[in-house]
Amino acid sequence: MMGMFFWAFVVGGIICVIGQIMMDVFKLTPAHTLSILVVAGAVLDGFGLYEPLIDFAGAGATIPITSFGNALVHGALQEGEQHGIIGVLTGMFEVTSAGISAAIVFGFIGALLFRPKG
Length: 118
Hints:
It comes from Anoxybacteroides rupiense. InterPro entries: Spore_V_AE (IPR014204), SpoVA (IPR005562). There is one protein chain. The protein is mainly α. The chain is built from 7 helices and no strands. It is flat, with a radius of gyration of 16 Å. The relative contact order is 0.11.
């Protein structure tokens, strides 16, 4: 039982340390760091590596922001298998909050259409 808490603490801590290193050493903004960690979680789920990490670390893998990328891809792939291309588009809305998913989609579209300043 204690081992479960230990590994959750270690894995969650490592994810946080990676984010802190990205900001301190590489001088990335919090927004860049957040985006990279979400994409990392999505890529890991795409290769089938995030679910074993969740099984191993529990809350240490489900609480950090990488889990959000995992949830988006996991939902899209799951629904894509059942409903085809429409399932890919609707899957992330089904598994994650529609408001958060919509913010990501519309934010991405806005970034494609407009030149960000800053």
